[in-house]
């Protein structure tokens, strides 16, 4: 059938819409895809920023707040301190024991040295005794020795552990006068350091030797006498 002009005119716009260029459609598609990509990247960046802010806030919160396990950590040094104190006490006991052992060893060493010195002195004394025995002394004169009221010589003996110095101090008031006791008994005493307690000793006359413990000059002469005796024995 033949269409009228009015119907053809009404249908013409639809034909114009269908006849738009096909090239415009891909361009719009590309633009929409690019916009969607930009939106996607913007969303990812925003999400990363949010996550970074959250993580940073958590880290700052953890730094500012004290850890919950702090009391347990604080208690550990106390346990170590107690153990350390026990170790120190054990070390002190060990040091004390070592110190006692060292002191005992030093004491034993000192005793040994003293015994050796005594042995050396005894050997020297024995040697000096032999030398003196080769030179017999003369008996004292009567005026040199002390006499009893009846005219007999005064005889004494050394007490237990007593030496000539102690005998001199006991009888004359000063130990420096022992040299006069030795002089009047030199004929029977080889060495003044070795005197038997069984030996009968003569006593020097105080008037003859001017023995006076209160007189400094008398004490000085006695010291000179004992120096001469010791020098003679050592030769």
How would you describe this structure to a colleague?
The protein is 67% helix and 2% strand. The chain starts with a helix and ends with a helix. With 235 residues, it is an all-alpha fold. The chain contains 7 helices and 2 strands.
Ordered list of secondary-structure elements with their pairings:
Elements: H1 5-18, H2 24-64, H3 70-133, E1 155-156, H4 164-172, H5 178-184, E2 201-202, H6 206-209, H7 216-234
Antiparallel strand pairs: 1-2
Helix pairs in contact: 4-5, 5-7
Give, in spatial order, the strands making up the sheet with the most strands: 1-2
Return the string of H and E elements: HHHEHHEHH
Characterize the overall form: rod-shaped
pLDDT under 50 segments (min length 5)? Answer: 6-10, 14-20, 71-77, 79-84, 128-134
Number of strands: 2
Radius of gyration: 63 Å
Main beta sheet: 2 strands, antiparallel
Number of helices: 7
- Structural class designation: mainly alpha
Helical content class: 55-70%
As a percent range, the share of strand residues is under 5%
For the structure shown, list the relevant keywords.
single chain, 235 residues, mainly alpha, two-stranded antiparallel sheet, 2 strands
Kindly summarize this structure in a few lines:
The chain is mostly helical and 235 residues long.
């Amino acid at each position: 059938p033949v269409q009228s002009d009015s119907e053809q005119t009404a249908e013409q716009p639809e034909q114009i819409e269908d006849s738009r260029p096909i090239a415009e459609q891909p361009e719009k598609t590309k633009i929409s895809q690019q916009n969607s990509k930009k939106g996607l990247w913007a969303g990812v960046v925003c999400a990363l920023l949010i996550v970074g802010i959250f993580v940073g806030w958590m880290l700052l919160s953890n730094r500012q707040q004290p850890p919950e396990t702090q009391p347990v950590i604080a208690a550990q040094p106390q346990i170590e301190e107690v153990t350390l104190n026990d170790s120190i006490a054990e070390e002190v006991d060990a040091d004390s024991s070592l110190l006692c052992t060292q002191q005992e060893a030093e004491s034993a060493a000192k005793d040994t040295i003293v015994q050796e010195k005594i042995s050396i002195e005894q050997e020297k004394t024995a040697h000096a005794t032999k030398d003196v025995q080769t030179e017999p002394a003369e008996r004292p004169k009567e005026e040199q020795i002390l006499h009893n009221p009846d005219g007999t010589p005064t005889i004494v003996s050394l007490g237990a552990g007593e030496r000539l110095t102690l005998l001199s101090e006991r009888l004359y008031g000063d130990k420096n006068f022992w040299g006069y006791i030795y002089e009047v008994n030199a004929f029977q005493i080889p060495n003044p350091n070795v005197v038997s307690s069984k030996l009968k000793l003569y006593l020097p006359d105080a008037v003859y030797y001017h023995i006076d413990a209160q007189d400094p000059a008398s004490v000085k002469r006695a010291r000179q006498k004992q120096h001469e005796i010791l020098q003679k024995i050592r030769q």
